[in-house]
Write a structure and sequence with these properties.
The protein is built from four helices and three strands, in the order H-E-H-H-E-E-H. It is α+β, with helices and mostly antiparallel strands.
């Protein structure tokens, strides 16, 4: 059986915000980028991705607008808002603290 790749509560939001930090992307590209950067360990299904995108938009951390994708199809593109950039920084700080604490409990070397 392969190892579990279930994400901690709230981690998907962090991954999406980080993925959108360089610039706007459509939803499918967000999922593909997360999969690519994680070396195919993390695979975000549409049933998780799109509700998360809608939730982040509702919270005012991302905004969306229509545009043309790489294959010239109409797609909704998402980008970080100013509030989203601030939230990303907060989430990254929280992640660093949490992952360091978990590493200590597990007796793993803490990365600087």
């Amino acid at each position: 059986m392969p190892p579990s790749t279930d994400l901690l509560q709230g981690t998907l939001d962090l991954l999406i915000l980080q993925t959108l930090a360089p610039g706007p992307m459509h939803g499918w590209a967000v999922a593909q980028r997360i999969q690519q950067v994680s070396r195919h360990v993390l695979q975000i299904g549409q049933g998780s991705l799109y509700p998360a995108l809608h939730r982040l938009e509702y919270k005012g951390w991302i905004r969306s607008g229509w545009g043309a994708s790489e294959n010239n199809r109409r797609a909704r593109f998402y980008s970080l808002t100013r509030a989203g950039k601030r939230r990303l920084e907060t989430e990254l700080e929280t992640w660093d603290r949490l992952s360091s604490a978990i590493a200590l409990v597990l007796g793993r070397e803490v990365q600087a």
